[in-house]
Specification:
Elements (H helix, E strand, L loop, with lengths): L1 H13 L7 H29 L1
Length: about 50
């Protein structure tokens, strides 16, 4: 997921004619939400383990 986001971001920054499709954009938003949720779970677990 992160590799795909990096590739699209790189293309949008450096390719003159790159325009992300609506479906690619929607998928990247879903992926970002999932990564955020997983990181949040991980951080909460680590904090609970320290208490």
């Amino acid at each position: 997921m992160i590799g795909s986001a990096f590739t699209i971001r790189n293309a949008s920054d450096y390719d003159d004619m790159f325009i992300a499709s609506k479906s690619d954009t929607e998928q990247q938003i879903k992926n970002a939400k999932r990564i955020y949720e997983e990181v949040e779970i991980y951080v909460k677990k680590r904090l609970d383990d320290k208490q």
